[in-house]
Amino acid sequence: MGILSPADDIDPMSQMISLLRPQALQWRVVEAHNAWTIHFPAVNAVVFGQVLDGRVQVDRSDGLQFDLQPGDFVLMAAPPIWSACPPGGGPVTPFQAYIDDPKCLLSSDAVPTITRFLAGHFIFAAENADLLANLMLPVIHVHADKVVAGRLGVLLQLLGEEAVISRPGRALVLDRLLEITLVEVLRQRSDQGDAVRPGLLEGLADSQISVALKLIHNDAKYPWTASELARRSGMSRSAFAARFAETVGAPPIAYLANWRMSLAKAALAAATQPLSEVAELAGYQSVSAFSTAFSRAIGCSPTAYRSFPGLSESERGFPKGGRIGFKMLAGEGGQHPMTRPLSIDLRERVVGAIRAGESCRSVAKRFDVAVSSAVKWSQRQRMTGSVAPGKMGGHRKPILDPHRDFIIQRIEAVPHLTLHRLKDELALRGVKVSHDTIWTFMRRHGLRFKKKPFRP
């Protein structure tokens, strides 16, 4: 999947998945006999599985448990340590031990109890992997008996049939089926409406907010304002801003900035467009203005970002997902987030070049860092023996932490409490904060409105 070109009507979900470029990196059919348990490590990927024969119980270290029946499909985003076993469990086998010896779970019994399931994980383009948090819940369990007559049911049936029969082209067909199933599962989840969680799909389900989202995705470089988006959506500016933040998880202009940077990161990683075109794609009229905004948001210049297309963002020296990824909101109090220090590897190479006799100005130009940074890193190495940065940031406590018990009490007491109402109730207690501050607090503490327990 490549970057979508501008069109008259772009589907935001398709465009976002296009930037993710999902691939089923690894998958295999696991067969186990009688009593067994496989212990899986935590992994920073989207794990998927489908039960082909038997029943499987999933037990996660975060306390979540659910049963998978034949044909059931599950997606787990960056799961913690977890295990899979038949009802009743059995001897524990680390997943790596199974990989080393797939026959270790087989029995010599004449008629063993057989469990088979397809298991693997998706990987996504590193530059925009954080977009996935805007599309899916941490766990999505699709019950085969509830979708058997629909499109997803047909896909799951094809997936199961292809997994158990060895035919020419099996690997290619399974890869494509898994990609289509991923999209269909996300689409199915958005139609169910049984989990309230801010994000793109929640916004697209709102008839008025979806208008603004489609405008943003259809023409990201247009100089949109909250007032114009509200007018085009048929709402007042204040009502539009509040509902957009509540359903999507970020204010409209912050979401626009996030999306522009996602497009820019994808274009820079592809390295097929000059910087001037990337700047225009991101809505900037000059390369200098774009470079300043990109550096502030991502933590390095566009040139430096393009120079390391094969590295993850943490390896480039800035936070995974960028400084204004979709998992983040605008900073409390309207302040810009602080840029994360550049990587130790980059600092050591800069200092090493200076110690080898090259001038600070020449080294700074070669590694695309500020001259002042090169000087300070060299000085710090001489004074402390290390180029590691000191502690960053202040020590101001989040303003809503002292009111955590009150907020939880109100969420539990009022089933349909809204962001707007909670803001007003806090104001009556003398705590005047923005919608963004409340959302930042709730996400940090894992809180949400209209809480519903996970029901597999």
Report the sheet with the most strands, covering strand number, pairing sense and barrel closure.
5 strands, antiparallel
Structural class: alpha+beta
Radius of gyration: 25 Å
Shape: globular
Walk me through what this model shows:
This protein has 20 helices and ten strands. The protein is of the alpha+beta class. It has a five-stranded antiparallel sheet with strand order 1-9-3-6-10. Strands 5-4-7-2-8 form a five-stranded mixed sheet. α4 packs antiparallel against α5 and α11 (275-281) crosses α12 (287-298). The protein starts with 11 loop residues before the first helix and ends in a 12-residue tail after the last helix.
Question: What's the short story on this structure?
Answer:
With 456 residues, the chain is of the alpha+beta class. Helix 11 crosses helix 12 and helix 15 runs antiparallel to helix 16 (360-367). 44% of the residues lie in helices and 13% in strands.
Task: State the main characteristics.
456 residues; alpha+beta; 20 helices
Secondary-structure blueprint of this entry?
Elements: H1 12-20, E1 23-33, E2 37-40, E3 46-53, E4 56-60, E5 65-68, E6 73-77, E7 82-85, E8 92-94, H2 95-100, E9 114-123, E10 139-142, H3 144-147, H4 151-164, H5 170-192, H6 200-204, H7 209-218, H8 226-232, H9 237-248, H10 252-270, H11 275-281, H12 287-298, H13 302-307, H14 313-316, H15 344-355, H16 360-367, H17 371-384, H18 404-413, H19 419-428, H20 435-444
Parallel strand pairs: 2-8
Antiparallel strand pairs: 1-9, 2-7, 3-6, 3-9, 4-5, 4-7, 6-10
Helix pairs in contact: 4-5, 8-9, 10-11, 11-12, 15-16, 15-17, 16-17
